[in-house]
Amino acid sequence: SLALSLLSISSILSLAADWPQWRGPKRDGVSPETGLLKSWPQGGPKLAWDIKGLGKGMASVAVADGKIFTMGSRKDGQMVIAFDASTQKELWAAKVSRHGGEPRCTPTVSAGKVYAISDDGEVLCCNAADGKVLWQKSYKKDFGDPAKPGWQFSESPLVDGDRIIVTPGHEKHFMVALNAATGAEIWTLKTKLEGDGHDGAGYTGAVISNGGGVKQYVTMVGKGAIGVSAKDGKLLWHYDKVANGTAVIPTPLVWDDYVFVSSGYQTGAALLKLSKDGSGVKAEEQYFLDHKTFQNHHGGMVKLGDHIYAGTGHNNGFPVCIEWKTGKVVWNKDRGPGRESAAVIAADGNQIGRASCRERV
Questions:
Q1: Is the pTM of this model over 0.85?
Q2: Per-residue pLDDT tens listing for the chain (361 residues)
Q3: Staple 107 to which of 69, 76, 81, 94, CB 3.0 to 4.6 Å?
C-alpha cells in the first residue's frame, strides 16, 4: 500500500533535506541526512500518518519544498499528485495521460517545476506550486512511436540544469534532451544497438557521469548499459553483457571513472572503467559477476565507501555486501521477514532495506 511507502520516509519529511527525484538528490539512493536513529524501537517506528486514495501505480515519491509528489492512476487517467507534507492535504492533481494504465515514474522536481512520464510515454511539465501544465510531449507523436517495453515505460526523467533527459528507445529518437522550460528539442541520439537483450528502453532513468573526463548520461536500456555525450547526444559506449531479453531494471551506480551495473533474469553484474578514447570514451570491463554470485533484479543498489549494498537473487532481496574494487562478496544474509525483491537506500552511514511493494491503492 502507499501507506507503507510513506512510512518509510516519514522521518525524512520532518528534516531539512529534500528528496526531489528517483533515488534522491544524486540519484544514488543515498540521503544526506544525519543524526538518525541507529536502531528502531521494539515493534518498529511509530506510524506518523498515511495517505489513501491515490489510485493504482508503482511510483515512488519525491519530496521538495514542503510538498510530496507522486503519480497514480485515477478514473480520468494517470495523474501527478501533490500533497502538503505537514498536513497531508492534497494540493493538486495534473493529468499526464488519459490512458488507464499504472504509472511507474517517480516525478522529478526542479526549479519550481515537476516532470513526469506516464506508462504509455506521455511527458508532462507542470508548476510545482499549482499543477498548471506548462508543456507536454509524447513518445508516440513526437519521438517515433517506439515499442513499449513489456511492463510499459517506467522511466523517471533526469533534469540536468536547463534540460530534461528522456529515453524513448526509438532508433531515431533513442535518447532525447529537451529544454526544461519549453520542451523544445536540444538533441536526439539516433542509434540501432546490437548485441544481447531486447530493443528499446529499459526500466529506469539516466544518471550523470564525468567518467573519462567527459560529461555523459548513463542508463540501462533493453540491450544493456550506454553512455551518451551530454554535449551533443553522441553515443560514447555500449556494454551488453548485463542485458537480458526480458527486463533490464536497476539504475547504474556511477562515481569517478567507474560504472557498476546489474540485471536480473539470471544475468549478473559488472564493473566498468571509463577512459578517454580519442574524441570519445571507452568502457572497459574490470570484472563480471555471474548471477549465482550477484544479480539485482529490482530494488536498486547503493555504494558506501568501498562497498556496494543491495538485494540479490531473481525475485528475491537477500542482503549482500560486495567490495566494489574486486567484486568479492564480503557477506550475504538471510532477509528475515519480507518476501520478493528488496528496495535499498542509505542514510547516515547505514543502509536501509525493505521488502518490495508491488502495488498500492
A1: yes
A2: 343 344 444 444 444 589 999 999 999 999 998 888 888 888 888 888 999 989 999 999 999 999 999 999 999 999 999 999 999 999 999 999 999 899 999 999 999 999 999 999 999 999 999 999 999 999 999 999 999 999 999 999 999 999 999 999 999 999 999 999 999 999 999 999 999 999 999 999 999 999 999 999 999 999 999 999 999 999 999 999 999 999 999 999 999 999 999 999 999 999 999 999 998 999 999 999 999 999 999 999 999 999 999 999 999 889 999 999 999 999 998 766 667 888 889 998 887 766 544 443 3
A3: 69
Q: Would you state the cell numbers that stand for residue 211, as one nine-digit string?
A: 567518467
